[in-house]
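1st attempt posting a full record on here, be nice pls
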Amino acid sequence: MRAAPTILHLDMDAFFAAAEQASKPSLRGKPVIVGGLGPRGVVSTASYEARRFGVRSAMPMAQARRLCPNAAYLVPRFQLYRTVSEQVMELLGRLSPLVEPLSLDEAFVDLEAGGVAFGSAAAREAGERLRRDIRAVTGLSGSVGLAGSKMLAKIASEQAKPDGLVLIEPGTERGLLAPMPVRTLPGVGPATGEHLRRAGMTTVADLAEAGEDELVRLLGKSHGASLYRMAAGHDDRPVVAERDTKSVSVEDTFDVDLHDRVRIMAEVGRLADRCVQRLRASGHSGRTIVLKVRRYDFSTLTRSETLRGPTDDPGVVREAAGRLLDSVDTTGGVRLLGVGVSGLADFTQEDLFAQAAEELAAEERAEEGRAEEQPEGEETPAAAAQAEPVEDAAQRRWLAGHDVTHAEYGPGWVQGSGVGRVTVRFETPTSLVPGRVRTFRVDDPGLAPSEPLPLVEKPETAAEGEAPVGQESPLARRPKSRSEGGGPGSGAAMSRP
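the predicted structure (as tokens):
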């Protein structure tokens, strides 16, 4: 635990959805939901406008459509997200050699290691200027937390959302943490949270009051002791420079052994969905599905299956994990379940096209002739509603939200496709007004897929005297936050209302 708030945590705001809104002027200020659009799809990211309707990450897409039927539903564009992520990580790397990425849109930074800050004032200044530079370079917003530990810096960035900065002064940790739910602390998932609730502990203050011995009795020596230290605000984990991710996994420990085979299968499916969310957030796909089962007698079994190619399809991972479970004897009960994916690779555009083709084919078999839903406020053009033979999904490959270009109309994006037609809105990230909508046959020779356009236009030559990262950015013309004007000298200082 440091004596100064020099550990920074950055979390981009609704990253995938915000990137889509930035690149599509017609969707700005409207609910946008990014994820798999097939019958087994799940929500990857929902814009803040969509969250007001109750839509959340990892939610089944069918449920999201019921809650927010007028949202724009888009297939992820990982090529764009990786490009923006690289821009953000480059800015972080200029602050310090110790940058620990957690996903495409989230990272810890050790400001002391970069010589940027050794006290509160300098740390706050570095955080605010980082936010301005991110907006200038990417057009997107990020929330920043500053504290003396990784745990508290992450909590601070959560409090700062959206588009803010919170600094937690060392010495104020206990009072800040006390009223927070136990799920706020790292390592407290649904199962542990429920176990603690049954023991009468719902807040961090309850954990601190219970004492280390009681937590060890309830959760075991390692977990109980670690949780007690965190409840007291202690976290000595260092910021670790980037490492290659070898696998992604999630697991849950149950306070009561599971015996019902149907319940066990349902839990495996839920874990598979959570695992895929982490996989997608890291910008990877994987070939090997791993199932971990700890039985009533504490014996642990691990089973794995290697697929033909990499995937991040939740349905594929669920089915593989289910097959692995079929080979495991759960008689006597199960204490822990885990699902993981290894053999990781960068998620390629070809992977996405192949996966979407399967989803589209499944949709057409289930409900022939159904067109993709249009974004809010748009009616399907009459031409798109005319009966046409349904094209082969692998031939079409017009994914909702993806980039295209037309020989006559220029760059645009796919608004929807179906019944042999594709509807395109022609606009770019720099368009001042929403673009025109046109509908074409899926085999129109003038229409072709294209690369994502930059969210922010780069000047051909840098202006003389342009400020580097860590200094005032001349491109960031936005209202000053409260902390820029000189916030309180102690406690949690927020730069948003």
